[in-house]
Specification:
By secondary structure, the chain is α/β, with parallel strands linked by helices. Bound molecules: ligand T4K.
């Protein structure tokens, strides 16, 4: 058997036309001694770069104006565009979503305990903990991966001041049921909508649910502002307060009326955000084609299930999320991640191992693992695959065919992975 460290060089692109190559064993996997499928690494989150010329024009106008930050015209226009697309009355742009979450949490007066899913990006419990709030981890629904409403209700105590729910992967939370619980218990409801810009539920755009919602426009999101975020709400007083709080608490010259931070978005970021918004429908179309190619390519692969999107709703198709049933694939999610690295595909284990297992947050919920069976299972089984403008439908076809072959030859793949020394392999163990 060839040493797989040698086997992956040189990498070259192999063209593929068929989307279902379950019967095609001709392509040798890199882990079994073949060439890597891709010469250039495919990433989850490679930025979608918008029209360079348009962006440069905007940047020139920023420089010409000498207005680089502090609520300049690019930010004002960006906020208007985001509010309109999100169907919200007000939008306050921020330097990133994490700061936006912290500001919203503070402005809503959340304190004591806040209920939050553990199966999410660590920004959520971090934003709470930075405000001295105890994140109370709640399990998620196995189908949507969003908070389980019954679990939310069960977690409410006299110290609960709010719910921080996450529209994970652009799957929308049970917004009405959560609002009903929040109203009945007189607690706040904040949505982390970092993944859900451009999505609808019941034909209504994400952006005006709960007390406020927070978007991310990080470089890895489908609409990006280099770094950026936005808080959207229909509450005018809240929006005004948030605006002051993003600017050190200033409400007028030399007048500090609120506890604030510097959470403002810069003009350069807003220029990128605006240019990115112009490409929004093209990006969504591209992502949707890739999503369809993934569904087609993995449809008949035993044990691999791609999360589907409701065709009646709008979606950004930004995350390709697959659930792996190891008993059927013969390969664990981690073994698939490792095998794909050798094909030059950086698939991700979002959001392993669940926030409740991360050292800074364990103390908040010592036995959380027992109470979070769905989170525990998803953090072992979820595989996030590359998409975006840098990934073509042909790439997806080739990538899915490699997964199909790996599952067919699971025993050999496991054996080779166990002895492989390739530096591209992930640092976590895959046995
Ligand atoms: N809530 C949720 C549910 C979130 O998922 C996030 C962020 C937030 C809140 C907070 O939003 P922000 O405060 O960031 O606005 C990434 C992102 O940093 C993070 O924004 C995102 N979620 C999270 C899911 O993913 P990493 O550490 O996995 O990303 P990283 O640096 O490994 O980048 C992913 C891949 O993209 C890399 O393999 C290379 C490529 N890449 C990345 C960047 C930044 C590029 O090619 N160019 C780039 O500039 O966290």
């Amino acid at each position: 058997m060839q040493n797989c460290t040698d086997a992956v060089v040189p990498a070259r692109r192999i063209e593929s036309t068929s989307s279902n190559l379950l019967c095609n064993t001709a392509a040798t996997l890199a882990v079994l001694g073949g060439d890597s499928a891709f010469a250039e690494t495919l990433h989850v989150g490679k930025p979608n770069l918008p029209d360079r010329q348009r962006f440069m024009q905007r940047l020139e106008s920023v420089l010409d104006s000498y207005r680089l930050t502090n609520f300049g015209p690019q930010v004002v226009e960006f906020e208007q565009s985001v509010a309109e697309l999100a169907g919200a009355a007000h939008c306050v742009a921020t330097c990133n979503a994490t700061t936006g979450l912290e500001l919203a949490i503070r402005a809503l007066g959340m304190a004591g305990e806040v209920i939050v899913p553990s199966f999410t990006f660590v920004a959520d419990p971090a934003a709470l903990a930075w405000q001295g709030i105890t994140p109370v981890f709640c399990d998620v629904d196995p189908h949507t991966h969003c908070v389980d409403v019954a679990r939310v209700e069960a977690a409410i105590t006299a110290r609960t001041s709010g719910i921080l729910a996450v529209h994970l992967w652009g799957n929308i939370c049970a917004v009405e049921a959560l609002q009903e619980i929040a109203d009945r218990h007189r607690i706040k409801l904040l949505f982390d909508a970092a993944h859900a810009f451009g999505c609808t539920v019941g034909k209504r755009a994400v952006g005006s649910f709960g007390d406020a919602e927070v978007f991310s426009f990080h470089a890895t999101k489908f609409i990006n502002a280099f770094e950026g975020g936005a808080i959207v709400t229909n509450n005018a007083e809240l929006a005004q307060r948030l605006r002051f709080m993003t600017n050190f608490g200033f409400s007028a010259e030399d007048e500090v009326s609120h506890l604030g931070v510097n959470g403002k978005m810069s003009e350069a970021s807003a220029a990128m955000g605006l240019t990115s918004l112009e490409a929004m429908s093209d990006i969504i179309q591209h992502n949707r084609r890739n999503h369809e190619a993934y569904v087609r390519g993995l449809e008949f692969v035993p044990g691999v299930r791609v999360l589907q999107r409701d065709p009646a709703e709008q979606h950004n198709y930004h995350y390709i999320v697959a659930e792996i049933d190891t008993a059927a694939t013969g390969l664990s999610r981690d073994q698939l991640v490792a095998m794909l690295r050798l094909e030059n595909v950086m698939a991700r284990r979002y959001f392993h191992p669940g926030c409740h297992r991360m050292p800074p947050y364990r103390k908040f919920h010592a036995d959380a693992g027992c109470a979070l069976p769905v989170t525990e299972a998803l953090s072992q089984n979820v595989l996030v695959l590359p998409t975006g403008l840098a990934v073509s439908a042909a790439d997806v076809s080739l990538l899915t065919s490699r997964i199909a072959v790996a599952v067919q030859q699971a025993a050999r793949v496991r054996a080779e992975l166990a002895r492989c020394q390739d530096p591209r392999l992930p640092t976590f163990t895959t046995e």
